[in-house]
Automatic annotation (TrEMBL):
GO biological process: trehalose biosynthetic process
Location relative to the cell: Cytoplasm
Keyword Hydrolase: yes
Active site per the UniProt annotation: D249 (nucleophile), E286 (proton donor)
Domain Glycosyl hydrolase family 13 catalytic residues, every copy: 83-451
Residues where substrate binds: 247-252, 311-315, 383-388
Keywords from the named record: Carbohydrate metabolism, Cytoplasm, Glycosidase, Hydrolase
Pathway assignment: Glycan biosynthesis; trehalose biosynthesis
Top-level division of the source organism's lineage: Bacteria
Name of the protein this chain belongs to: Malto-oligosyltrehalose trehalohydrolase
InterPro entries: DUF3459 (IPR022567), GH (IPR017853), GH13_cat_dom (IPR006047), Ig-like_fold (IPR013783), Ig_E-set (IPR014756), Trehalose_TreZ (IPR012768), Trehalose_TreZ_E-set_sf (IPR044901)
Lineage of the species this protein comes from: Bacteria, Bacillati, Actinomycetota, Actinomycetes, Kitasatosporales
Species name: Streptomyces lydicus
Amino acid sequence: MLFEVWAPRAGRVDLQWAGDRAGRPPVPMERDGDRAGWWRAEAPAADGDRYAFRLDGGPPLPDPRAARLPEGPDGPAAVVDHDRFGWRHPWSGRPLPGAVLYELHVGTYTPEGTFDAAAARLRHLADLGITHVELMPVCPFPGTHGWGYDGVAPWAVHEPYGGPDGLKRFVDAAHGLGLGVILDVVHNHLGPSGNHLPEFGPYFTDTHRTPWGAAVNLDAPGSDEVRGYFLGSALSWLRDYRLDGLRLDAVHALHDDRTPHFLAKLSAAVDGLAARLGRPLFLIGESDLNDPRTTAPRESGGQGLHAQWNDDFHHALHTALTGESQGYYADFARAPLAALAKTLTGGFFHDGTYSSFRGGPHGAPLDLRTTPAYRLLAYAQTHDQIGNRALGDRLAASLPAGLLAGAAALVLCSPFTPMLFMGEEWGATTPWQYFTDHTDPELAEAVRAGRRREFAAHEWAGDAGEWPDPQDPATRDRCVLDWSEPVLEPHGTLLAWHRTLLTLRHELPALTDPDPRHTEVTFDEDARWLLLRRGPVRVAVNFGRAATASVPVGVPGRDLQVLAGWPEARLPHADGVLRLPPESVVVLGP
């Protein structure tokens, strides 16, 4: 078997065996004459054999490209033979257009917190009408439980979840139910504990700074190899684990002054792999820039990602539902229904407008003639937007079921690709709080202090003593979904509501029309109602609270029938005016 490693600063590299083979002598590695900085060695090895690299006689270090770290980020790597896995279900892929995503955290989706336990719950999602599961990061991180964004080995799979074979079993089970699988990957930083990449080479650079420290080296000396490292990792997930797409965390933090940009190189490589495999593959970026170039085609100067999260839609919908106005919600809260109407019809709210949160103009307008609406993701809740709240409270903690139903209707009937956060479909009451499992006491305390500073800066209410401790195991336990809830009320009715809306989305072509110019919105800011029109389909929502009166909403169209209604079915009167009670929503169509 061929072992290779990039270590340009080393004068000597040895392959050292560990585990059952620890008694074998080290294998000196030789410089690769064709690739500067690379070392290689041929040695007999089999799946599961454990090994490490020693640079200039130093301590054993895990392989940066290890697919498995059975003892965690600081332990040896293990050989993984991807060809040994027996896939049961052939899979030709599911494309992004027409998709409905479901964000899922393996460690809290079930009490067991494993791939196998999560796979046993996939039938629930297939029956609901979900098309793709979006897994939060699964790369190794210290300890057992965490969100995954502190991962330190971008080629490997967290062992407590089930390791590489566990992920493959999950993907295979999903494909057997017709579900695609997307993986959230983090290229913009590595976690603060267990990160050994700097010992191998210039994987980071001080040329740019990020909230996590030195930036990943995408444009300084040595960046060709660093680019290749992350490109190879991305392609491995799609090829070796048969994933259908990747969600790229915080791409605005990928500082790269080279041409073409790393994201353009990545999208070109993924498109090439899709052509070779004969199945659709896609990239979804999380971007804070509101930059149309993120999803614009490479040939027109864009980065070529296939979609991006749209936090503007979330912020507008959130302020309309809750009335919150702190932090980045301030601009949206001034006229939330107007903000919601703008995002539903134009994509971005900040499209060059002034952002008080940023202290200047932000974003640029999308070209609606050339940007299919599915390139933006719409959501009422995500791991970030819930978990960055002081108490990790979901919308269901403070909103009546009628407003949750209205939010679901706008997300699932929007022109964009909809996404739900796990448990949202039944109005889960379990919070989603930030939790970590750092073994370094100083780092653990730094994380606690950092969260307290963030909460104070965002002006979250409550005493700091009430804010959850990320290091307390009880914090993770509180976040585990309660699977007894869906059979209780109002959870069962909310679940049926989501199932009805998803059935409509899959059956009515107007709801997956990719042309954003076919979406119209009217609203009354003071009366608190909004009417969304998607071709012949109308979605009327009254955001008013229970103590307010019904509102008249003019609904254009003939021969309309109720496709879905909360709390009850209502048709417009003969004059075309719908009397809409507070906390209600109705979906009408021909």
